[in-house]
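#dry-run=false #mode=assembly
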Amino acid sequence: MLVRWHDVYGPVYRIPAPQGNARHWVIHEPEFVQQIMVRRAARYAKGMGLDRVRLLLGEGIMVSEGDFWARQRRLLQPAFKPRRLADFNAMIAAENADLAQRWAEAARIDAPVDVAAHISELTLVIVLKSIFGEDYPRLVDGAANPFSLLSEEATRDLRFAARFHRLGRVVESIIEARTESSPERFDFLGHMLTARGRDGTGMSRRELVDEVMTLIVAGHETTASALAWAWYEIATHPEVCARAQAEVDALAEHEIADVVDHASDRLCFIEAVIHETLRLYPPGWLLSRRAIQADTLGDYEIAADDQIFISPYVLHRDAAYWSMPDRFRPTRFLQAGVPSQRFAYIPFAAGPRHCVGEHLAMTEMRQHLVTMLRRFTPVYAGDHPPKLESRINLRPGDGVPIRWRARKEFF
Ligand code: HEM
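#status=ok
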């Protein structure tokens, strides 16, 4: 619908507000996007639509505002530095190797797998192990992973919120036990327990729980959706698959760890595949802001309290900035000057509220694609493209069925 409206009304228009006086703007002019998200970000807060998220994440960094948000971001950010995240690489590689075993078995008996479901489990375990480290087994405790409701339940309704809050209590019990033993371990929780603000104080128990829950939700579904879409596109574009496999085949096994945790020339095509996937299917497909002060965007007067909607999905498919915008063509990202407008491509948003987990997400996606493309060729087993399900994330609504063909070279 937003794409149709964009064609009819152009890059800036207003939509009727359901209630109250606040006006609702839809903005897809890259220059204005830059102004709202970066240059004058201080005049904007997170907008409507976040209320449902707030229900789940309390005062976590995704939804908090002002000085409180700035403090929490300062406390969390150091844990996301590439040098610190490198400690997770071996764990991410091991989780992918386990999944490759399952896919090898599926390939052997020629059974299709729903990669969306499998990858959702994979990214959930990765985010939980990044947060809880050695405490992860306590979470699972021999039984089913209590957090698997996040990958199994698609609906984010009140019933889900109640179950999600019960998970908060599980998290709280782990925090309590950790506080009594040694908080100083290298995982996100260890970092959060020891991080101190300028005034020397750390996070309260409530804040810790909200931030942990935020990282689980923000770090799990987004990466999972992106990878599921990537497999659909790779499977239906054999020439892309062949080129990506040639690139990963050129790496020796022992070189993989050195190239997956940064944008390397040796993986430039895989990098382009990831960017092209995030362009066509940005998991955070709709961002919202509320003006907290008046602002002027070109000829448009924004009043305090006006609501603003920016859709990366619409920007990423705008023919003004992308040639053949609906086609999956990773090579576009190998050309100089693409995107032609920096703010026409914002899968991780931009400015002070940009995604804190971008580096981790990119590492996870590279590691996953490299591991699997070395071993398998995907064949799409569906009889129609996956349905675009645009809830909080843009995910493949009815899964992504893939048959894996084991590559002889690696088995
Ligand atoms: C492909 C994967 C991912 C995508 C596309 C993505 C996208 C985004 C976007 C668009 C935002 C900004 C939302 C807004 O402005 O309203 C955001 C924020 C955020 N993301 Fe990600 N994300 C991904 C993975 C991750 C991971 C792996 C983590 C952490 C484990 C993470 C943690 C966060 C957090 C905490 C925020 C809030 C930052 C703040 O407001 O200060 N994300 N992400």
